[in-house]
Every structure is written in structure tokens, then in C-alpha cells.
Design goal:
Elements: H1 3-29, H2 31-36, H3 42-47, E1 55-56, E2 62-68, E3 76-79, H4 87-90, E4 93-94, E5 98-99, H5 101-105, H6 107-111, H7 115-123, E6 133-137, H8 141-151, E7 156-161, E8 168-174, H9 179-182, H10 187-199, H11 208-211, H12 221-230, E9 241-244, E10 246-247, E11 256-257, E12 264-266, H13 268-273, H14 277-288, H15 290-300, E13 325-327, E14 337-338, H16 341-347, H17 358-369, E15 373-375, E16 380-385, E17 391-394, E18 399-402, H18 406-422, E19 434-443, E20 450-460, E21 466-478, H19 484-501
Parallel strand pairs: 1-6
Antiparallel strand pairs: 1-2, 2-3, 4-5, 6-16, 7-8, 7-21, 9-12, 10-11, 13-14, 15-18, 16-17, 19-20, 20-21
Amino acid sequence: MSRPLKHVVIVLLGCFTALFVQLNRIQVYDAQALEDNPANTRTIQRDFNRPRGRILTRDDVVVAFTEPTPGGSFDGQRTYPEGDLYAHVVGYTSFTFGAEGVEREYNDALVGRTPGQELSALTDILGGTNPIGDVRLTLRHDLQRLAKEMLGQRAGAVVALDPANGDILAMYSFPSFNPNRIADNDGGPANEAWTDLVNAEGNPLRAKSYRDIFFPGSTFKVVTAASALENRVLSTAAPEFEAAESYTPPLTERPISNFGGSTCGGNLVELLVVSCNSGFARIGAELLGPGPLVATAERFGFNDTPPIDLPLPVASVFPTDFGSLVSNPTGEIPAGIFEDTPLLAQSAIGQNNVSATPLQMALVAAAVANGGSVPTPHVLLAVEDAESGGVTARFDNGTWQDAMSSQIASDLTGAMIQVVERGSAQALAVPGLVVGGKTGTAQLGTDPPRSHAWIIGFAGRPEQRAEIAVAVLVEGQEGSSEQTGGRVAAPIARALVEQFFR
């Protein structure tokens, strides 16, 4: 073999080897990632013309079904009778754009491709049945409709869930979209609708409830309080912080002020009741330090992707790098001074680079109400046989994180009840119920001032466990008073609590 030909053979062998390695990497190691990629429409295209089950709420409202289309390009047209109400949960299925939401997550169950369904089809082959599944959701139609009504045309999100098992009871974001337009079997209108939505203000295709992160503001003080109690740097009764208008962290001359120049102090419960910035900033900077606060935030679920059964949820973020230790003056600052201690002080009150989804903050409230355990959030209640109605699968409820001990959860429950009874969350109170909450106002640094209005909370009957946890975010509200969350977000949460127990 001549030398030039030998070189060509070597190059070709190298190319074939590289191709072999790449194919195996794609087929073996990257298979799941490709399957989960929303741009991958092959699975939906494969199943598009198969019979497909319905999607229903827990109270029997049909939110997705297939309408027969005799003589059409396909045997049926996927239809969403509630329009934009469930768009960010149910999603859509489109031959052109693939699928989203429950339609994507539970596609196999809907078309009868789960192992159990395929086995059933084999054993019943003579009967000629197609064991497609109906997917029943945990959501309640009355709560979902009320969440949309109360939020109105304001950008934001509402999440309500059962703190004991993670059942999502309501989850609505605005702006939303009408999935019927995208799901249209006629490619022309579907493409036009997609283009309109991609270019629309506010990104209506993106669920703010679990796919967007925002400054949580003072709602994060619940996490800071849990960390302080867990690390025994204080109790609910002591120490008593001196009343102050602001707090200036070490290594900076820029003070962190209380809203409206107010003065606040007292023990941990009093700091939480009035949402005292100066007190909580000092707790984070001087009593806790980075390590303990980061560890507690992560036990609540920050810096981790929540295991909700919907595609592509995002992680809430608590910063982990606050620089190197500068000094640790004995007896003055037990936590030590770090290079970015001023930023740590801001993080302790939910500012700086702290950001959270409304789902995550609902889970913070749920953990307090659930004895310290963060439940696994989910929207699937059960898969039912479309023909017989029998349950073929249920969601396996469980704990996602252990955020704190039951004693600390009990202490925080009492403190959050005080916030509702005599603090910034009084608008969340419902007669006859035990309600706890925490407001939040996340300043956006604009002129004139605007802020995100938050509230998180839980509610239950006297002497019984809390049955609902909520989080409400209303974006970009005028002003930056600590009362903004209570004035704007609390009425939405209260309406859901009242409707739930009604």
C-alpha cells in the first residue's frame, strides 16, 4: 500500500471511530436528555395520530380531550375547553411544536405506552381494546379559576398546595396563552399563533410559577429565622435586639434601612411580626455567617431543581460564595467577617442575588406547616383506565427535603401566626381558621419606586394540621412599602384560603 493511500485509510478509520463513539454517546449517555429536550418533537409525532386520553381536574372538569375529525389530516383534534386557565400546567400537544406540560410529561400514559398498559394490551389482544389512560390532576377547578380571577391582568403567579403531600391545588401565571391555537392541526394558524406568542410582551409561554425566579424579599426571612433557630444563635425569646432605624454591616458604610425609616427591634418573633430589615440583616451577617445560612437555604430546596412532574422546572438560587474570611473578633461577631459580609446581610432579607420561584416559596410555607418536611410537589393525582375508569397508577407522595426539626417548625408556625394576627399579614386572616403568613416586598431599584409584592402562608382548622399552603407574587407594583405585600398579594391568598375551606 502506497504511503498516500495508507494516510487516507488511517484518516477514514479515525473518522469512522469518531462516528461510532458519537453515535454510542448519543444513543446511550444522552438519550434521556434528548428525550426531555422540548425541541425534540419525534415522540409526539410518533404518537400524534394514536387515540389519546383525557386530562381532568380532581373535581371532574375536563381540561383536555381529543375531538374526532373525520376526513381530516388526522383522526382527531386536541382541544382545551378552558383556554388559558390551565395552559402552563396542562400544556399542549402539537404536530409542529411538540408538547408541553402534562401533555409531555405523561404522554406515554395518555396514549397507552406505559409498560403496564402495553402488558394489558397484550393480555387483552382478542378484545381489541386500546388501554389509553385518562390523567387526573391534583388541581381543583374552583381554586384555579379563582386564582386567575384574583390575579386579573397583573403579571405574577399563584401557587396553592397541600403541605402534607405536595398536591398542587392551584397554579396559575399571568400572562398566559390559549393552547388551542398552537394545537391547531392546520399548520398555518398554528405557526401564526406561535410567532405571536414568542414575540408577545411578558413571555406568556413561560410559566412564572415554576420556571421564573424573582427576588423573594422579606418572605425569605422565614428561612433566615429557621437557620438562626437551628444553629442556636438565638431563640424565639432572646436575645432582644435594640430598636434601630437601620443596620450597617461590617466592611461598608452603606446602611440597610427599615421600610419608611421605621424603627424596630425586639426578639425573633417581634422582628418577624414587623419584618425588621435591620434585625434580620444583622442576624445573617453577625450571628450566622455564610455557611449556616447557605446550608439551611439548601435544605429548603434552594440551589436544587424541584422534583415537580412538569418539564424543565428551574432552581431557586441562594448565593454560596461570600468571599474569604477577613477576621473573627472574639466575642463581637461569632460568625466572622467575610469579604462580602455586606452582601450576606442583604441576602438574609431576600435581596442581593437571592431569587426564587413562587413554587419554591409555597414550599417554604409548606415546610413550616408540615413539621419541617418539604413535600414533593406534583400535579398528577392518578392515571385511570379510559374505558373502565379504574386507577392504574398514582403519584408516589413523599418528602423532597427535610428543612428543619419539628420543634423549629413549631416555633416558626407560632411566629407566622403572630404575623397574621398583629403584623404585616393581617389581610390574610380568615375568621375561624388558624392562619400563618409572611409578607414580602422586593424592591426593584427603579425611580419611581416599584417592587414585587409577595405573601406566603398556610391555613388550617383549630387543633388540626394546616391543609393548604400558598404563595402569591404580583410583579412590579408601585411603591416599596413593607405593606405592599400585605395590601396587594394577601387578598389573593385569603380568597383562595376561604374558597378552599368553603
